[in-house]
Task: structure prediction
Amino acid sequence: MSTSENLPQLNICIIGLGLIGGSWVKALREKGMQGCVTGFDRNLDSMQQAVELGIIDRYASTAREAVKGVDLVILSVPILAIKDILLEIKPNLSSDTILTDVGSVKGNVVEAMREVFGGDKANFILGHPIAGSEKNGIKASDSSLYENHTVILTPLENTDAKALATVRSLWEFAGARVEQMEVKHHDEVLAATSHLPHLLAYSLVDTLAHSHENKEIFNYAAGGFRDFTRIAASSPKMWHDIFTANKSAVLDALDLFNHDLALLREAIDSSDSNAMMGIFTRAKVARDHFSKILARRAYVEPMKDQKINFIANPGGSLSGSFRVPGDKSISHRSIMLGSLAEGTTEVTGFLEGEDSLATLQAFRDMGVVIEGPHRGRVTIHGVGLHGLKAPSNTLYLGNSGTSMRLLSGLLAGQDFDVELTGDDSLSGRPMNRVANPLREMGAKIETAEQGRPPLFIKGGAPLTGINYKLPMASAQVKSCVLLAGLYAKGETVVTEPAPTRDHTERMLKGFGYPVKVDGSTVTIKSGGKLTSTTIDVPADISSAAFFMVAASIAPNSDITLEHVGLNPTRVGVINILKLMGANIDVLNKREVGGEPVADIRIQSAQLKGINIPEDQVPLAIDEFPAIFIAATCATGTTVLTGAEELRVKESDRIQVMIDGLQVLGVDAKGTDDGAIIQGLGPQGTMGGGEVISHGDHRIAMSFAIASLRAGESIKILDCANVATSFPGFIELAQNCGIKVQLES
Result:
């Protein structure tokens, strides 16, 4: 944020004396801006009031006269009046005079500029403050109007950098957050987020106003009606101009809304409860997320306060073809590397779960402009490897261990200090596994007792590459060190004792950064750059695993999971289930964005207990809670060894699963590095009861699918964090035949 000490001295002309322009100038004057302010408005009273209020020093009789000898002209007039104003003032504009506007449609302003000046005017800075008030006119001017509000600037290809910097700094002096966007994209975004709501508000009030029941409607209108329709009290002339100027984008947004509204109408008409709840649930979650963005808070803040339980009723079978949510690991990394890339990265299939959103919010807090997510689509305007800015507050990462561990590597190489925190679950997990190798590289990191969060990372510490041998197989630790290696002098070499997921290495290559992989050793050098790309996130094999096991253990099941990521470091669950006798076919193999994907068909099968090969353990480390359920339904004994890492996940997954299985009457016991489970055989069933997930989403979902082979209902406690990796799990499970629901 700019400070008053370097506020430039400017002679300013403001054309159109109302709330928007008046508030901007008033804020600048209160911050100590020096220079003469001239005003012009068609309304003489407005000009006289502006002088009396001290917003302007003088006023002129014409716009042409007003712009003589000024450094900056602010056009605060209706959109459709821009061209006429430009024609009027053009003769008296100095070649050095900066022009800027405050209109909510930019394409129309560009057209007017080109018609008047014969092309793009380099020192015309197109701007749009996202702020307003129910009150209008110069008397409503408020110096605090723009504090913590967004202003969007839409520079063109030949926009003068110095003029752009001047306008940006003036908005920052007024307390605004300034972002940049392309003109066409701005008009599309504002059509959906601002123009369409105003259109709907005007239309709704008009419809109800000429209804025969209008008296009752307005007499008994509750707060929701008043809140929504408040925006219909704004200037009709202004909105007439906006809808006229941005007609194409507004109509596109209206068409999309009408389409989705028709679907909702159909759902209500047919009493389709699932469809209605799907729409309402998605809308509520989205609104909560938007609220966090507007308040500059992390997406996941309320998660720790939610108490959600599942009730899983016995029996059922699975059928159908469907796609589970996008891969969480790839979603995380797409945000991270896209933010550090040069240029704009487009992501599709992004997992809109709390964990991934926590990463997204963290980079927003560090100054990266990220659009979306919208139906899995995210646009990231990268800032380069050295373009991150210090966040104004602690980075809150909710329940996401991936976010904290990988970010610690990236942030160790930045020039600013930062603190990383999380919810109660994350705050209990060990972080010295990443902190220690980073310290070896020269990073200054402090932790709480026993190496647990919060993490305090001191900026500006020079990093040096190391040759690091992982004490245990961990993709997160490997990735953390490699990401720190982007900023470390010399080479950073990581050697792992067993294969782990290699999404980081693959994605670095996808962004054009050289990475050398030689067997179990990965080498990276600093000094390169990341170049923007497109990423299509495949369906998450960890999410698919629950349905692979479910279809295997439930009689008469036949499902196809679409577009599943089959990274060779992640396919352990398929390999293990096949060794147990699962009926799994991998179909339509292909490669998308450097990651192998395929469709997977699973049919019911009679599973058998096995000694799980230790070389498969790292390839299925996150899927073992589901595999434990498969082992329970198998014939014979299943033995797991070499899985120490499971004891330091969101929970001690071995112990929590064993405790839950024992509640359900299963003969199961934990060992130091695994478990021994006696299968119930093809006809055996588990009992019912109450199990505790300890806030671990994979535990909760595993016991949900266990109900397919239970004789009684299973109540699963503490399930709020299922949203961290699998939003919409309940709905999808119900649709394919699993009898699980939220406890009412």
Notes: The first helix runs from residue 19 to 30. Residues 307-315+546-742 form a domain with the UDP-n-acetylglucosamine1-carboxyvinyl-transferase; Chain fold (CATH 3.65.10.10).
